[in-house]
Amino acid sequence: MQKGDLQMEYQFTVKEDGRAVFVINRAHKKNAINYEVMKGLKDAITACKENDDVKVLLITGAGQDAFCSGGDVQLFHALKTEEEAYSMLYPMGGILYELMTLPKPTIAVINGIALGGGCELASACDIRIAVDSAKIGFIQGRLGITTGWGGTTILQEKLSPQSALHMLYSASTFSAEEGKEYGFIQRVVSASALEESMKQLLEPLLQKSASVLRQYKTLYTKRWEANGLFARMQEEIQGCAVLWAGEEHHQAVESFLQRK
Ligand SMILES: CC[C@H](C(=O)O)C(=O)SCCNC(=O)CCNC(=O)[C@H](O)C(C)(C)COP(=O)(O)OP(=O)(O)OC[C@H]1O[C@@H](n2cnc3c(N)ncnc32)[C@H](O)[C@@H]1OP(=O)(O)O
């Protein structure tokens, strides 16, 4: 394959105004997360932490109809046992913990459908802005599993129990406006107004000094360290791995893969 033909599964750029942008670049797979995207996200978060020029991290998906459809079902379908599932779930949970505690503002720009682990990824960001056509759903329950990247533990820090548990129990797909009613989405805009809305959202943040932004985030990170956030995420991940090995999950994934 010619070098020029190589399609990177993600793009990470740092703009002159201090915003860093991570784009999941797998639109042909509704921006599902595979191991390359996981590594790219891990490296991007580290780069943001180490680069004083970066003030804000944005995460979004390539194309117009998907933010992220969760883990790559075709790829992760090969993981059958609890141990094999844990070998993928735990590293991604660690990445979401690093994202959650990055000492800089993080914004999920939900440009389209966000499902399963895609919602967990968005949850780990400080702020979620969505286009009005976006659909969001913690659909893991339909596959006989729970969130497996720490998403439930993260929601416990951001949403009311009634909102979070309804979204999780139902495994329903909600509109962006419904997600806003639950407190999961902070701003809903039309696709055409997204760029302007992002400008309005970012301007006041980019004008603040890095130390002010870092101080605010550190106050939250200290709270999460004090209440054992990562240990609770790990417990959630272990629970998901047990369900992952169950027949209900394997049959649900098989049905998805055989659907066409
Ligand atoms: C802990 C996290 C947990 C985990 O995986 O570990 C999860 O995230 S569980 C949830 C996993 N995600 C899903 O179950 C979503 C599966 N995808 C869908 O339900 C649909 O594809 C949908 C609703 C996103 C879009 O449906 P639509 O009819 O508009 O498009 P297609 O289904 O034809 O999809 C187009 C193309 O993308 C591939 N695709 C979509 N989602 C995934 C995915 N999550 N993993 C891998 N591939 C995905 C789909 O197979 C099609 O590709 P093709 O080569 O044409 O088959």
UniProtKB/TrEMBL annotation:
One annotated GO biological process: fatty acid beta-oxidation
Name recorded for this polypeptide: Ethylmalonyl-CoA decarboxylase
Top-level taxon of the source organism: Bacteria
UniProt keyword annotations, A-Z: Cytoplasm, Lyase
PROSITE patterns hit by this protein: ENOYL_COA_HYDRATASE
Gene3D superfamilies named among the record's database cross-references: 2-enoyl-CoA Hydratase, Chain A, domain 1
EC number, UniProt record: 4.1.1.94
Subcellular location: Cytoplasm, Cytosol
InterPro entries per UniProt: ClpP/crotonase-like_dom_sf, Enoyl-CoA_hyd/isom_CS, Enoyl-CoA_hydra/iso
Catalytic activity: (S)-methylmalonyl-CoA + H(+) = propanoyl-CoA + CO2; (2S)-ethylmalonyl-CoA + H(+) = butanoyl-CoA + CO2; (2R)-ethylmalonyl-CoA + H(+) = butanoyl-CoA + CO2
Organism: Priestia koreensis
Job description of the protein: Decarboxylates ethylmalonyl-CoA, a potentially toxic metabolite, to form butyryl-CoA, suggesting it might be involved in metabolite proofreading. Acts preferentially on (S)-ethylmalonyl-CoA but also has some activity on the (R)-isomer. Also has methylmalonyl-CoA decarboxylase activity at lower level.
CDD domains in UniProt: crotonase-like
Transmembrane intervals: none
